[in-house]
From TrEMBL:
GO molecular function, one term: 5-amino-6-(5-phosphoribosylamino)uracil reductase activity
Organism: Flagellimonas hymeniacidonis
The protein, known as: Riboflavin biosynthesis protein RibD
Residues at the catalytic site: 53
CDD domains with a match to the protein in the record: Riboflavin_deaminase-reductase
Catalytic activity, EC: 3.5.4.26, 1.1.1.193
Requisite cofactors: Zn(2+)
InterPro entries: APOBEC/CMP_deaminase_Zn-bd, CMP_dCMP_dom, Cytidine_deaminase-like, DHFR-like_dom_sf, Eubact_RibD, RibDG_C, Riboflavin_Biosynth_HTPR
Catalytic activity: 2,5-diamino-6-hydroxy-4-(5-phosphoribosylamino)-pyrimidine + H2O + H(+) = 5-amino-6-(5-phospho-D-ribosylamino)uracil + NH4(+); 5-amino-6-(5-phospho-D-ribitylamino)uracil + NADP(+) = 5-amino-6-(5-phospho-D-ribosylamino)uracil + NADPH + H(+)
Pathway(s) per entry: Cofactor biosynthesis; riboflavin biosynthesis; 5-amino-6-(D-ribitylamino)uracil from GTP: step 3/4; Cofactor biosynthesis; riboflavin biosynthesis; 5-amino-6-(D-ribitylamino)uracil from GTP: step 2/4
Pfam family, one: dCMP_cyt_deam_1
Homology family: In the C-terminal section; belongs to the HTP reductase family. In the N-terminal section; belongs to the cytidine and deoxycytidylate deaminase family.
Cofactor note: Binds 1 zinc ion.
Function of the molecule: Converts 2,5-diamino-6-(ribosylamino)-4(3h)-pyrimidinone 5'-phosphate into 5-amino-6-(ribosylamino)-2,4(1h,3h)-pyrimidinedione 5'-phosphate.
């Protein structure tokens, strides 16, 4: 790894600090170097705030050094006015002579224009430093821009004998949720929720568990709740319809008199390919990442449609003997690790 790659790796590390807060903007990291010494660093503020380049430049104590400095950034600087002014303008204003960029921005308002603007000002620009690593880092933003859908993460827990939920007779005896995983795995799931922009479940999961679908065992932003409820069976008293968190209900019921205040309703056709419709609705709502928590039928629909990017599967030590089987999935296993008594398998759709 050469020196430029090391500085770009630092950009990626900084960018990770924006995970869960910058969406739908990308989580960019930026480093400024003078005479082989880092003099400024920054990452993207929560959505609507300053970009990484602005924060990095503002962190430099002696601004006179900038005219002889090198700027590294994980994604092409913007060249248009949005929530904030163009970052290219600030780079040019401070006469930073050289910029290394990890990845060209595919957004139609940028798409190479930032690079060309910098070059036109006399700045030396190098693109593609740690490009592969930057693509992985920006996977949510890139999925939204290039595939016109959110980056989709599937999650479920299954028993040692391969069941997601117990048989109905077990639920009848004890209607409270049956926990398959341990406390540490539960906390990890809440951390994951804080990192993604939206979370999705189906009607049966809501009716069976009355979940809150928020972040409780971790500090972070609550994800947007997306509920599949074809016939609006979920009672208004249930947690997911309390309007305390932005909630989108996907339904086939077009009678608006049944809609609750504070909830967004989107009509989809449940008799045709449903997952692509979900992706289209979420794209319309500028949702760049989706955490799918089930149940089995909902998860399998995403798998069968081949519209998923990651799967995170917990296997606990309990057994049910009978019940709802876990989804069937094939993907590239990239990691298996213990979470105390549980086993976590991480797959990607290759």
């Amino acid at each position: 790894m050469n020196i430029h790659e090391k500085y770009m790796l630092r950009c990626i590390q900084l960018g990770e600090k924006g995970l869960g807060t910058t969406a739908p903007n990308p989580m960019v990291g930026c480093v400024i170097v003078h005479n082989d010494k880092i003099i400024g660093e920054g990452f993207t503020n929560p959505y609507g705030g300053a970009h990484a380049e602005v924060n990095a430049i503002n962190s430099v104590k002696d601004k006179k050094l900038l005219s002889n400095a090198v700027l590294y950034v994980s994604l092409e600087p913007c060249s248009h006015f949005g929530k904030t002014p163009p970052c290219t303008n600030l780079i040019i204003e401070h006469k930073i002579p050289e910029v290394f960029i990890g990845l060209q921005d595919p957004h139609d308002k940028v798409a190479g224009r930032g690079i060309e603007k910098l070059k036109a000002s006399g700045c030396k620009v190098t693109v593609g430093v740690l490009e592969k690593e930057c693509r992985v880092h920006h996977k949510r933003f890139l999925s939204f821009q290039e595939k016109k859908r959110p980056y989709i993460i599937l999650k479920w827990a299954e028993t040692a004998d391969g069941f997601m939920a117990p048989a109905s007779k077990m639920r009848a005896k004890n209607p409270t949720p049956f926990w398959i995983t341990n406390t540490y795995s539960k906390q990890l799931v809440h951390k994951w929720r804080s990192e993604e922009q939206a979370i999705l479940v189906g009607t049966n999961t809501v009716l069976a568990d009355n979940p809150k679908l928020n972040v409780r065992n971790w500090e972070g932003k609550h994800p947007i709740r997306v509920i599949m409820d074809k016939d609006l069976k979920v009672p208004s008293s249930f947690h997911v319809l309390n309007a305390k968190i932005k909630t989108i209900v996907l339904t086939q019921t077009d009678d608006s008199s049944k809609y609750l205040n504070g909830i967004d309703y989107e009509l989809i056709d449940f008799s045709s390919e449903i997952v692509q419709q979900i992706c289209s609705v979420l794209f319309k709502h500028s949702i760049t990442s989706l955490f799918v928590e089930g149940g089995s039928k909902t998860l399998q629909a995403f798998i069968d449609s081949n519209l998923w990017d990651e799967a995170r599967i917990f296997k606990g030590t309990t057994t049910f003997t009978s019940g709802i089987p876990s989804p069937k999935i094939s993907g590239k296993l990239i990691e298996t690790k213990p979470i105390i008594s549980d086993t976590l398998s991480l797959l990607i759709n290759d």
